[in-house]
Amino acid sequence: LCAAASLIAITQNAWSAGPAEPPSPAAFVSHDGAYFTTVGGHVVDPYFVNKSFIIALEANAPVQADFVRWLQWLLPRQRPDGGFDRYCIDSNKQWKNCMKADADDSMAATTIQMIATASKKGWIPAAQQADAARASRNARKLLSKLFDSKTSLYKVFADTEMYYLMDNAEVYDGLRASGASTAANALAAAIRRQFLDGSQWKPAIPEYKEVRFYPH
Length: 216
What we know:
Helix 4 runs parallel beside helix 6 (165-177) and helix 6 runs antiparallel to helix 7. Strand 2 and strand 3 (95-99) form a beta hairpin. The protein is mainly alpha-helical. It contains 7 helices and 9 strands; from the N terminus they run αβααββααβββααβββ. It has a 3-stranded antiparallel beta sheet with strand order 1-2-3, with no helix packed on it. Strands 4-5 form a two-stranded antiparallel sheet. The protein is globular.
């Protein structure tokens, strides 16, 4: 009976405790408005931060002040070609571009979509609007270099012949959000034509011999 009572008590406590709450955004934020990829980490990947703010914008989450701080951090670090690297912070709290982006096409696409969505919602202050517009233009220029006229798809990097389904879908979202509906529709048709094989979608072109976490 004692064992049974203990088991009941343990079970009740487990149900009442529930799953652990995930860390809040504050657990990832740096001293100057960036967001680390992992709690306690030292690397900032702008792709994930852009993606998070896109979701927040679409959900009308009350994070405009955080978004403005992110733009202040992000925009000055855009590469001359319109892309963004990944950044590491050293012991003196100085940032260095320590790794290239996982993919230039999706990084450019999220920059375009985030800025376009924020502009429509009036989230970008007047003092940042010129810089934000310039960043979007530069990202679009990068996409134009990644566009392959043979496939009508966007390459991961300018010097590769690799195309990801997920990345091209993100480029579609970026084009559509920025009002480039003709280009977006053309890309949607190319995505179906190139990636859809019967009833199956190919995650990448050329196809991988073995399933991998990314891009599968």
